[in-house]
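INFO batch 0412 | record 1 of 1 | parsing
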Amino acid sequence: MSTTPVGPPGASYVATPVPPAGIVGPGELLALFRARSPLTRTDVMTLTGLSRSTVNQRIDLLIDAGLLVERGPDVVPGRGRGRPAGSFAFNVERGVLLVCDIGATALRAAICDLSGRVLEDRPLVSDVTEGPEAVLARVDPLFAELLAACGRSAADVRGIALSVPGPVDREQATVVSPPIMTGWDRFDIRGWFARTYDCPLLLEKDATAMAWGEYRTHYGEADTFLMIKLGTGVGAGIIAGGRIHRGADGAAGDIGHTQATGEDGDVGPLCRCGNSGCVEARAGGWAMIRDLAAAGRDVSTVDEVVERIRTADPVAVGLARAAGRVLGVALAETVNILNPRVVVVGGQLAEAEEQIFAGLREMVYSRSLPLATRRLELRRSRLDERAGSVGLALLLADHVFAPATVDAVLADSAGPA
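INFO prediction complete | emitting tokens
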């Protein structure tokens, strides 16, 4: 459990671009405050080109809606000895956000302020193959516990976001034909939470949520960024041009189900997706459990695999090095195609960094084009097990406070002219 806020304050997020002068609506103005708080009225006029009367009107509108709060006068160097200007900031305490990063064998629920900063979280062992009702029935009391710990109620929740280890339809917030998520196909996740919470719900692929968390908190200067998740399965999240790249139908980044033919031409073991020879079937956590068990080792979880690697079990170490090379071949092909500036590796197997990363680096730098690896950084996750939660929180905050959404809410609350 965590009682220390996780993730950066709003000012350290990737800055929201300032809209052209003269067309800044209330929602866009709020985005400016979310990216750069605190700001004075003069700051806003300078950044947007809006007149003082327009700035005053829109700031007052956001204050009345509880979205901005006034701060005490700020003494700003270089502004003379006149009366210090008052400043305003995004009201991150106007409500809370709830997120849950659901993995194959565990989940992590968290409560966040409206900037997307994680305030507290709760991990829990949970088998995703038990189906949506069983898993979500565990999430419900965790959300209630987190709300109580922060002195909040269901009425304070402004949004919910979940990530899952399978393909998702983001528009419908449903899982689509998942290889390992038995019973989840097209399950009404929004309907499940709508019984308790009156707010938007987002559903995201786990590796994508992790990618966004790492990117926004530590690598915002990288134009192209790749996150590799090595856990029970293998997945990837892609950031291109500073935006999440999901592909035409949300299937981008499924590196675990690309083919990895053996050196002898062997098509490889059967994968959980129904094909043979997938990267995941050779190098995923579940595959290593399979191979260790076949070698007479008593293991049933990825954490136990990692422990055997750390204690220098020769079979486990050999499998980890082989897995690193398999993953490295797949990653080399991806590096050639995407030319990322940074590749971050996370998930449980990333804890066996010495063995896994050796194979990764060997294959990436020997098989990728020199130009594609000239400035490439290959790093381990800095957020570790909280990467998914942080990414979900940031995605959800951006969704809830999207300028068009804020404008629509303010227009509805104002009523007819």
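INFO post-check: Confidence is low (pLDDT under 50) at residues 8-22, 79-83.
INFO record closed
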